Amino acid sequence: MKNLLLSLAASSVLAAVVPTAHAEAPITAVQGTVAKPTIVLIHGAFADSSSWDGVAKKLTAKGYPVLSVANPLRSVGNDAQYAASVIGAVKGPLVLVGHSYGGMVISKAAEGNPEVKALVYVAAFAPEQGETVAGLAGKFPGGTLGDALADPVALADGGKELYIRQDKFHQQFAADVAPKQAALMAAGQRPVTMAALNEAASGSAWKQLPSYFVYGTADKNIPLEGLRFMAKRANPKDVVEVKGASHVVMVSHPDAVAKVIEEAAQAK
Asked: Does the structural domain 20-147+196-266 have CATH classification 1.20.1300.10?
């Protein structure tokens, strides 16, 4: 199982200020423009929406509408379908941002929506059709997520879901985040199903849309060479490597991540 699950991550979404909305809030309150498209943030596994707080704060301060989508983390297909239904109700142009497993989601959810102008992958998976999170995470050596996982939790439907052990969360997932903050993140982490990590991607929207990549060089969930491999084959508009940053680069370096997102939003 260790080789099978060498990855995944955290992320999530939130925003503070008026232009921010959550999936539970009226979508009609969020409307992007050509100059300020709506920024849609989609988190990955082992995190909740608070992991986007720093990024959302910086974007809303510059006038960008921000929408936080709660990612169910149950299956790639269903999660992407849910995200697509939410963004489909948003008026105006969009930039989709995915962290870790959230990259699998935006790669499918963006398909067929003419309002999506760019994709931003934040320490995220950018899959080719047929690829899985587990397969991409194990494609290159260096990931240590498998050793940090707790025993799978059995679900009523026969499936299993995964958590990162709280005593290993800081070093595995958020090594460059303050210990007290990392402890709160560990307590609030949202689990992902094993099925989701092994489900083949059915979308690769980065082939049709401009893409941008930002990730840390000290990521322990997705090996650095894996991140570089996915970024290179996508032929992105920009790639930013944040030296020494962990898998939750959006938490530890919100300025760098927000800057890439704004670059994507302003591109013609």
From this structure: no
